[in-house]
Design brief:
Layout: H1 6-9, H2 12-26, H3 38-52, E1 59-60, E2 63-64, H4 71-83, H5 87-113, H6 116-127, H7 130-137, H8 142-162, H9 165-182, H10 185-200, H11 209-232, H12 236-250, H13 263-270, H14 277-281, H15 286-290, H16 294-312, H17 325-336, H18 341-368, H19 377-396, H20 404-426, H21 435-444, E3 451-455, H22 462-466, E4 471-474, E5 496-498, H23 502-512, E6 517-522, E7 540-543, E8 547-552
Parallel strand pairs: 3-4, 3-6, 4-5
Antiparallel strand pairs: 1-2, 6-8, 7-8
Length: 553
């Protein structure tokens, strides 16, 4: 692998850029709490895995959670072992994943175009993509999946271009890791690129003993966890196929159903201002557009095909299409060397406008001091410094070089990372973290002497801050619909109470009269009318941005 990435190693400027990026990504990484629901879920499953030493069966608040394969949990437990069970430990390897992606984007561009300037520009553009930055701030599978997909495709491209057998075996290993990160969806990205490449470059498929051995290795590694958990839980096979695969494609599962056009405005917004290049290219003659290079066609057709495939799927989240953005970044970088100076100047001015809007927004919020968000003086100072740096780059980087829009874009990415981190560290409740709320509870009652009850919502992060699992009251909210069919006993009922059951309501009535009991209610949803008679049982109340806490000392 070292030989294959030697192109990255020999470019000290890009290595310096990656070092700076890593430092920026790590700055303040543990200063804000775990966000509900996705990030908290992955963080707590990893915590329970670390404590129980059961690396086969993921559990969330004591209940088996087979929604995703285990690689993200494994990586997070390593972070916990190094840095402790905290936010920094949970998110650390996400930042490593982003830096690896940027190295691989460079490598892919270098393999496809054999141009160091295009490769560097591709990495700069990639870091300017807001979706890439979002994936670094929130613990989910998507950043790791993208890293393994990019790594696999880089190895395949290197093998195809250079004929190195070790790259072929690494390709199969990385495909297996992608399968163990998010399942068969990883194959869509990998196979689409390979199939389009073979069609455009007219490459036939030649099967050697190394392909057979590599495929066998991939099959063995990629299916290992699935086979082991299905052997222990026979009903899981149907669950994986029916609930986790087919229903995500064709049904309204997991409350993530979105219309076909869902990704269209997102792509437009998340690629601002780069899509300005497109209408400029259409001003060329039709022949030039239709006869774009094979490498451009490869990236364009692959990304469009994947975009359409994921638009057809019923369940949609914005990060699902993250593995497409490396192709868009390289395409943009290539076009920057083809468009006119006037077009590049428009892009430069667009980033100046965006950084100006960002600064004015922060200044306005700092002056107005609205209730929903706090802008600290430190955040304002950071924004001023970032504006000064941006202005210096805008004025002193030669406007004639094709890389200038990418440099300004990357500096805007730096601003987004540093400012979002600072803002989130002062507004945890606004960004759906329970850290501040549980910190308040911990000050009143020591960790080991209290009972926390959450009404009709699954707050996964509570154990990280309280030291113990909460009792979740299940009524109708989808987050409380747990997959309990694989439990070996009834212990899960201690922490998940179905309050449609009169017996559980009676238990709740008794609990609300007990000292050191804290009931957390979502302010927007409120309390069920039939249960409002329980509220007077609590002597105290404390309001947070999204939550109401009723409690007895």
């Amino acid at each position: 692998m070292g030989t294959m990435l030697s192109g990255v190693a020999t470019n000290r400027y890009y290595l310096f850029f990656l070092t700076v990026v890593l430092a920026i990504l790590l700055a303040g990484l543990g200063s804000y709490g775990l966000a509900e629901t996705s990030e908290a879920r992955y963080a707590v499953i990893s915590k329970e895995m670390l404590n129980s030493k059961d690396y086969l069966n993921p559990k969330l608040l004591g209940i088996f959670h087979f929604h995703k394969p285990p690689i993200t949990y494994y990586i997070t437990t390593v972070g916990y072992r190094i840095f402790g069970v905290n936010e920094f430990g949970a998110r650390f390897f996400l930042q490593i994943a982003i830096v690896l992606q940027m190295a691989l984007v460079y490598g892919m561009a270098q393999l496809l175009y054999n141009d160091r300037r295009i490769a560097i520009t591709s990495g700069l553009v990639y870091f300017a993509m807001p979706l890439v930055l979002i994936s670094s701030r929130n613990l989910t599978t998507d950043a790791y999946l993208t890293t393994f997909i990019l790594g696999a495709l880089y190895c395949w491209q290197y093998y195809t271009s250079k004929g190195k057998i070790v790259a072929l075996y690494l390709f199969y290993v990385l495909v297996a890791l992608a399968l163990l990160t998010k399942g068969p969806v990883a194959l869509l990205f990998i196979l689409t690129y390979i199939i389009v490449y073979k069609i455009i470059f007219k490459r036939s498929s030649k099967i050697s003993i190394h392909h057979i051995l590599g495929f066998g290795l991939c099959l063995l590694l990629g299916s290992s966890w699935y086979i082991m958990v299905v052997m222990n839980n026979p009903g899981l096979w149907h669950y994986f196929v029916e609930k986790q695969l087919l229903s995500r494609i064709a049904s309204h599962s997991f409350n993530r159903s979105k219309p076909f056009w869902f990704y269209i405005p997102l792509i437009i917004g998340l690629t601002l201002p780069w899509w300005w290049i497109i209408p400029q290219n259409f001003k060329r003659s039709t022949n030039k557009i239709l006869n774009i290079g094979r490498e451009d066609r490869l990236l364009l057709i692959s990304s469009v095909c994947l975009f359409l495939i994921f638009s057809v799927f019923k369940t949609k989240l914005v990060l699902y299409i993250l593995p497409i953005f490396w192709m868009l970044a390289i395409l943009v970088a290539v076009q920057l060397f083809k468009v006119t100076n006037a077009t590049r100047n428009i892009l430069n001015l667009a980033y100046a406008f965006l950084i100006g809007c960002l600064f004015l927004g922060i200044l306005g919020l700092w002056l107005l001091k609205p209730e929903f968000i706090q802008i600290s003086t430190a955040t304002l100072v950071i924004s001023i410094i970032l504006v000064i740096v941006f202005v210096a780059l805008f004025l002193y980087v030669d406007k004639g070089i094709p890389e200038k829009p990418a440099i300004l874009g990357a500096s805007f990415g730096v601003a987004l990372i540093l400012l979002s981190t600072s803002i989130m560290s002062h507004n945890g409740s606004t960004f759906n973290s329970t850290k501040e709320m549980i910190g308040f509870i911990n000050k009143i009652t020591p960790k080991e002497n209290k009972t926390i009850v959450v009404y009709d919502y699954l707050l996964s992060s509570i154990p990280v801050y309280s030291g113990d699992n909460p009792i979740t009251l299940k009524l109708r909210n989808n987050t409380t619909n747990r997959e309990v069919q694989f439990q070996k006993n009834q212990e899960w009922k201690d922490d998940l109470w179905d309050i449609n059951d009169a017996v559980m309501v009676s238990r709740l009535d008794s609990l609300t009269r007990s000292p050191n009991t804290y009931l957390i209610i979502n302010k927007k949803r409120g309390f069920k009318d039939e249960l409002k008679y329980l509220e007077p049982h609590f002597k105290n109340r404390q309001e947070f941005v999204k939550w109401l806490v009723l409690y007895n000392k």
